[in-house]
């Protein structure tokens, strides 16, 4: 029993294929003491035998072709049968130069007994060969002990290989998960960076950034509503850039700018000869948007007949070009925009209710600029910097009086009008000079002046006193934190506040 336990323990301690092979050879040497032994295993390709072993106390290592019958191991491997040669000198046909050199040191009466190593499906794994006197080899073959030992070896080898495959699969899965996690993190960072391009400090702007981030993570149809010039196409493009299909096409069409009789051919395309003048086939915008985003601007102005056809395309993602016999498929994500009050149009029967619900799976509302005057300053800085870069000019900052006048203006044209006003002012401002109201032509200056109800009120842009006080308090604390390098105790003392009160305000106002 003790010998059996020691035998099993020695076999189980082999943790890899090489160690298991050494265990087999050492077991053969200890129990039968042959003059030599070879363990030849097929490599991954199944074309070569990697051999290790010993002969006359000298270690052996060589590689043999699995289908080269100039050595005896190939015969045993391919036939799948045991074979015993009483003598290797004339008894076995050995033409392989490397194998003949290996046997040069063998005694003259040395023979060879080789047996194939087969897995559970009787597929060859390799060959185990013993070199010794022919009489001893015949006795060893008759005892069947070597066959039993080789079966144990093959089963343990299969177990180790299966464990190795499982371990490799686990590592591959971990690597794949790490790559996916890293890619998701990278995409989140890119989305955050892109969404950060939406300028503005107002609550409406913060809410818009949250909505864009959320909508970029799914494929639902998005309807963007807002007044003319509020930036609907900017948001639509940002949605596409933040999505998983950012590398695919972004295809836009203005439904209000195309005549009614041409919208269908623009969207769906047409075949050559479909109508008079169709000299060649044309791919429609729906087909061009395959894999990406189709943006329908001013969808509220779409003719009723096209609304029904668009609804069918949205439900099936199939369409038929004009003059075509077969339908085509396009896997696109729809983003639509309008300044029209679609709900009112639905009630009046001017817009299909089923299409409205299909478009409105995700609704994003852009607040007009007059309702978020605190966004005018960062938008102005951005447009001035953009103009200076484009024109290669050095411009000064926006004069405070000009900024206050802008913040008091109603901006019926929203962000687009603000950009146009500032471009005119920048173009009329001398190099290096601050940008003031005087740079505007008389009619634009008059428009701004008429819109300000109380020009003497420097705080006319404030619409929420509580919010304004919080923003002022946060800016004071943030400036003092920078001054003292983040030391809250010194900041609290400089502001005559208990440190506990300052900590509470920092948490509430999100000041770090």
UniProtKB/TrEMBL annotation:
The keyword Ligase does not apply. The keyword ATP-binding applies. Keywords: ATP-binding, DNA-binding, Nucleotide-binding, Transcription, Transcription regulation. Signal peptide: none annotated. Residues 198-427 form the Sigma-54 factor interaction domain. It comes from the Bacteria. PANTHER family: PTS-DEPENDENT DIHYDROXYACETONE KINASE OPERON REGULATORY PROTEIN-RELATED, TRANSCRIPTIONAL REGULATORY PROTEIN. This is Sigma-54-dependent transcriptional regulator VasH. It comes from Pseudaeromonas paramecii.
